[in-house]
Design goal:
The protein is of the alpha+beta class and about 475 residues long. It has 4 domains: about 5-110 and about 465-470, Uridine Diphospho-n-acetylenolpyruvylglucosamine Reductase, domain 2 (2-Layer Sandwich), CATH 3.30.43; about 110-230, Uridine Diphospho-n-acetylenolpyruvylglucosamine Reductase, domain 3; about 235-350, Alpha-Beta Plaits (2-Layer Sandwich); about 355-445, Alpha-Beta Plaits (2-Layer Sandwich), CATH 3.30.70.2740. About 35% of the residues lie in helices and about 20% in strands. The longest helix is centred in the first third of the chain and has 15 residues, at about 15-25. The termini are close together. It comes from Candidatus Endolissoclinum faulkneri L5. One of its GO terms (biological process) is respiratory electron transport chain. It holds the Pfam family FAD-oxidase_C.
Length: about 475
């Protein structure tokens, strides 16, 4: 891939400056800034990682403006960092160290272009905030199921570019499973219009899949046709204490089989996670009177009238789970307020860890059947390396995904702890690989996991990925230094 050096910038200074000038003209005076203070929020991600200073932040208002500015960047070899809500956990949406990058924020492209309730589709622009998208679907008496803790600020373009997971993957799949069509600006400024709301289209390669999960390295997603679903008619939630992780996995099987596969959410939470949330987040309370080592947030969802109410089915499931020893205590939400109180504990897991101090984050997946085995083996290995380390392992075990996070030992020095990140992650990822898992279940690769990807991904896959990158972005202008 061709990379622009500062020497080449100097050699072609006129073209470079002219390109920046024309980009400003394309987006208009309200569509760009090079003021450092104004740019800082775009250069710093949720984890506090800060990229080097970008040339400017550009905020185009439509696809045509993006196409024009991409063409100008391609001509002048200016790199582009596509950015949605900047909620990346892997440094995928901030500048690196080239000093030759512009950030293209999709924030102004936030329209819902069309809702087709009969076709069960919604067409939205990439800057549409996930929560707003959910509300738009709800107004049409439909349901968009992608849900995650950052949904109040995360934008759908970023969700699709990273193939976001979230809490409802068990029932509806990852972000890519919710996409029927895309509109994408390519590296030469052309617009690929694949906005088709078809569930059957067998006319060659499924091109949209190239861009879903590619983290903005192959093109800029500007709009999408997404699947929507019937609105739930009944949602039932239970906060369950379980004796161990193996019991949680067994409870999942029981709940799926006895509910007619109505399980939408199945989230594992350890005691330490609950303690940190209650410690740092206001108005969070323990749902149960006793303390236990592990908990599961279980939700059943129905979109149809059933011969037995879902709440009765949930009570029957829990009754059977009590008898078999899979559940040792539980609270069932009696109203939406109680349900949201359960969710507040889960959704503030990452924020409470951030407030508590440094942590080493792992976003892994293994087959569901091996979740308990992985949990125990990895913990033994990590504890041998650092007996005082605190494990905060939580997540979507209904789809095999654990956020296996290591919290800094109390009274330890931050930099010394973080300096061991590669050491700890190497041990954890080796176990993941042995169990046929993935080192990144839903957070992507970004900047932080490039070395790990090169180590754990097989050579043929890496060669194919590099070939696709070279063909789709021969100038290397899209999100350089990310993924590959």
């Amino acid at each position: 891939m061709r990379r622009r050096t500062m020497a080449s910038v100097t050699a072609n200074r006129v073209d470079f400056i002219e390109a920046l000038k024309r980009i400003k003209q394309v987006v208009g005076p309200k569509g760009w800034t090079n003021d450092l203070e104004s740019m800082l929020p775009y250069m710093t991600d949720w984890r506090g990682m800060c990229g080097t200073e970008a040339l400017m932040v550009v905020r185009p208002k439509n696809t045509e403006e993006i196409a024009k500015l991409v063409a100008l960047c391609a001509e002048a070899s200016i790199s582009i960092i596509p950015q949605g809500g900047n909620t990346s956990l892997c440094g995928g949406s901030i500048p690196q160290n080239s000093g030759n990058e512009i950030i293209v924020s999709l924030a102004r492209m936030n329209k819902v272009r069309n809702i087709d309730p009969d076709n069960y589709t919604i067409t939205v622009e990439a800057g549409c905030i996930l929560k707003d998208l959910q509300h738009a679907a709800s107004k049409a008496k439909r349901y968009f199921p992608l849900s995650l803790a950052a949904e109040g600020s995360a934008m759908i373009g970023g969700n699709l570019s990273t193939n976001a997971g979230g809490t409802n993957v068990l029932r509806y799949g990852n972000a890519r499973d919710l996409v029927l069509g895309l509109e994408v600006v390519l590296s030469d400024g052309r617009i690929w219009n694949g906005l088709r709301g078809l569930r059957k289209d067998n006319t060659g390669y499924d091109l949209k899949q190239l861009f879903l999960g590619s983290e903005g390295t192959l093109g800029i997603i500007t709009a999408a046709v997404l699947k929507i679903f019937p609105e739930p008619t009944e949602v039932c939630s239970a906060f369950c204490a379980v004796p161990n992780v193996a019991a949680a996995v067994a409870l999942l099987e029981l709940a799926r089989s006895e509910s007619g596969d109505a399980v939408e959410t199945f989230e594992l939470m350890p005691r330490l996670m609950i303690d940190l949330v209650i410690k740092h987040i206001a108005d969070c309370k323990d749902p149960l009177s006793e303390r236990y080592d592990f908990y599961v947030l279980l939700e059943l969802v129905s979109t149809a009238s059933l011969d037995i109410r879902l709440s009765e089915r949930l009570e029957l499931i829990l009754s059977n789970a009590f008898e078999s020893g899979l559940v040792i205590d539980a609270a069932i939400a009696q109203n939406e307020t109680q349900r949201q109180a359960f969710w507040k504990l889960r959704e503030n897991a990452s924020e409470s860890q951030r407030i508590e101090g440094a942590s080493i984050k792992n976003d892994i997946s293994v087959p569901i059947s091996r979740i308990a085995e992985f949990y125990d083996i990895a913990w033994i290995k990590v504890a041998e390396m650092e007996p005082n380390i605190r494990l905060v392992a939580f997540g979507h075990i209904g789809d095999g995904n654990l956020h296996y996070n290591l919290q800094i030992p109390e009274h330890s020095e931050k930099n010394a702890f973080l300096a061991r990140c590669e050491e700890f992650n190497g041990v954890i990822n080796d176990i993941v690989l042995e169990m046929g898992g993935s080192i990144s279940a839903e957070h992507g690769i970004g900047r932080l996991k490039r070395k790990e990807l090169a180590r754990y991904k097989d050579k043929v896959s890496m060669d194919l990925m590099k070939t696709i990158k070279n063909v789709m972005d021969p100038g290397g202008i899209f999100n350089p230094g990310k993924v590959l």
